[in-house]
């Protein structure tokens, strides 16, 4: 079986390939990349593929049995780009598509969810075998705020007391590798999240413990948090979106306690303390 990975040079794609190489022979893997030169270090065959150039996709997928469709990073254009990939996969004779969706995409209030819902419908209507990996929040999404929290003396957000069941990016990558290299996953939707949920108060407490000084959590109204993010250079639209996602988190949008992720990978998900320790080293 030959497996192709879209977005192979991205953070998730690279980790998926690392995990796959421990499970299948590297000569059975194909890295699909918009800029093939960026994939030269992956140690597997690389094929040029661009969601926005549909003609490039079917040739890149020739001889491929299973495709990992990592959701595009271009919010607002994802549905069309994913349609191009699914249509090309069907034309090329790909048998099985594994798609990285969003936790509880069918009911999620997150603004990101609609394009995932559209893609899930496309997959189910495609006539191909499919598996949907509904990835929860990456712990790294919050670790990116570590340097700012340390510099400013507080972790800031709008998530209130919402519980966040995040997991490390490598956990989600390993789950994708397990599904791609394994059997019995066709037609299944997995809700993937970390084993232990936390509030941003609890995250701040863990940062404080490891940093050796008090870093409190400061909860802001949505508009104030968006304004703060914009004042640090984020585009206004993205700042509003991030603040909105935090508010959704306060209402449970990032919580799940089904432990399907740790079941798939056969181990506990990466502890929050480990992610904080790694982030502190880089802060």
UniProtKB/TrEMBL annotation:
Q: Which InterPro entries match?
A: NAD(P)-bd_dom, NAD(P)-bd_dom_sf, NmrA-type_oxidoreductase
The identity of this protein, by name, is: NADPH:quinone oxidoreductase 2
**Annotated ranges, domain NAD(P)-binding:** 7-142
Q: Which Gene3D superfamilies match?
A: NAD(P)-binding Rossmann-like Domain, UDP-galactose 4-epimerase, domain 1
Q: Which domain of life is it from?
A: Bacteria
